[in-house]
C-alpha cells in the first residue's frame, strides 16, 4: 500500500478536553492537525480562528493544517501564519481570482494549498498545479463533520493524480470528508496520500488512539 498521512480534524473534538485529545492524537501517530475555519458566509457555520490555532500550536509539535472555508481568506493569512499555521488551504470557489490569492499566500512561509468542493470539476485547477503545494479534494459538502463520503470523489482523485503525473509534478492529494475505515482504502488506491478524518478519530464511542488505529488497520 502506498504511503499516506493522517490529519485528524479537531472539528469533532471535545473542546472541553482539547489538550488531552490532541496529546492522544500526537502520541498515537497523527501526522498533522487539521483545523477547519468556517466563516458563516462561505459555509453556514462559524467555527474558530486565530486563538484556537495559537492554542493548538502550544499543545502540539505536529504541523497545523488550516482549512479555510471562508471568503476573503487573504485577510487572515498574516495572523494565521503568526499563530503557527504550517499549511493554509483556500477554496477554489471562494477565490474569484485564485492566482492573486495564491500570490498573496506565497508572501508567507507556509505551504499553499487549494480545496475543491464536490461539484467543482478538477480540471478547473489544472493550470495552477505548478504553483501549489497540495490539493484538497472535498469528499463531502464543506461545512460539517460526520457526513457520508461522496463516491464520485474517487474519480476526481484519480483524474487529478494522473494530471499531476503528466505535468511532471509531485503534489500530494488530500481528501477530506467521510473518511472512515470503509472509505480509506479506495481513497488511497485512487491516489490520495493525506487523509483528513474528524468523526472517525474524535468520537464518543472509542478513544482517539483506537480511532487512529482503526483507520491505519483498514489500510493493512
Ligand atoms: C468539513 C470539514 C472536515 C470535517 C470532516 O467541512 O472540512 O474537515 O471535519 O469530518 P468527518 O471526517 O467527520 O467527515
Ligand atoms: Zn476540513
Would you mind describing this structure in some detail?
This protein has 220 residues and is α/β, with parallel strands linked by helices. It has a single domain (5-217), classed as TIM Barrel (Alpha-Beta Barrel). Helices cover 30% and strands 18% of the residues. The chain contains seven helices and eight strands; from the N terminus they run βαβαβαβαββαβαβα. It has helices at residues 18-27, 50-59, 77-83, 98-105, 153-166, 184-190, 208-217, and strands at residues 5-8, 33-38, 64-69, 87-91, 111-116, 134-138, 173-176, 194-197. Strands 1-8-7-6-5-4-3-2 form an eight-stranded parallel beta sheet. Helix 3 links the parallel strand 3 and strand 4 (87-91). The protein is globular, with a radius of gyration of 16 Å. It starts with a strand and ends with a helix. The mean pLDDT is 97. The structure holds D-xylitol-5-phosphate and zinc ion. D-xylitol-5-phosphate binds next to strand 2 and strand 8. Residues 9, 11-12, 34, 36, 67, 140, 142-147, 176-179, 196-200 line the site of D-xylitol-5-phosphate. It is an enzyme of class 5 (isomerase). It holds the Pfam family Ribul_P_3_epim. This is ribulose-phosphate 3-epimerase.
CATH superfamily: Aldolase class I
CATH fold name: TIM Barrel
Distinct helical segment count: 7
Q: Structurally, how many domains make up the residues? A: 1
Following the backbone from N to C, one meets helices and strands in this order, namely EHEHEHEHEEHEHEH
Mean pLDDT over the residues: 97
State the share of residues found in helices, binned by percent: 25-40%
Compute the number of strand runs.
8
Biggest sheet architecture: 8 strands, parallel
Amino acid at each position: 500500500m502506498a504511503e499516506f498521512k493522517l490529519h485528524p480534524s479537531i472539528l469533532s473534538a471535545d473542546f472541553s478536553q482539547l489538550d488531552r485529545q490532541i496529546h492522544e492524537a500526537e502520541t498515537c501517530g497523527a501526522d498533522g492537525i487539521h483545523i477547519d475555519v468556517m466563516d458563516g458566509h462561505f459555509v453556514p457555520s462559524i467555527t474558530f480562528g486565530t486563538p484556537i490555532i495559537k492554542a493548538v500550536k502550544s499543545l502540539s509539535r505536529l504541523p497545523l493544517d488550516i482549512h479555510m472555508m471562508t471568503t476573503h481568506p487573504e485577510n487572515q493569512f498574516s495572523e494565521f501564519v503568526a499563530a503557527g499555521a504550517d499549511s493554509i488551504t483556500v477554496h477554489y470557489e471562494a477565490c474569484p481570482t485564485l492566482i492573486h490569492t495564491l500570490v498573496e499566500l506565497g508572501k508567507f512561509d507556509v505551504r499553499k494549498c487549494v480545496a475543491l468542493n464536490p461539484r467543482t470539476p478538477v480540471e478547473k485547477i489544472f493550470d495552477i498545479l505548478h504553483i501549489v503545494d497540495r490539493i484538497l479534494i472535498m469528499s463531502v459538502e464543506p461545512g460539517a463533520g460526520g457526513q457520508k463520503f461522496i463516491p464520485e470523489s474517487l474519480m476526481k482523485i484519480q483524474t487529478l493524480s494522473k494530471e499531476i503525473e503528466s505535468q511532471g509534478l509531485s503534489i500530494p492529494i488530500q481528501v477530506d470528508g467521510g473518511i472512515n475505515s470503509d472509505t480509506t482504502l479506495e481513497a488511497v488506491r485512487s491516489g490520495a496520500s493525506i487523509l483528513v478524518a474528524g468523526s472517525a478519530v474524535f468520537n464518543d464511542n472509542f478513544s482517539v488512539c483506537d480511532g487512529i488505529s482503526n483507520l491505519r488497520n483498514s489500510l493493512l
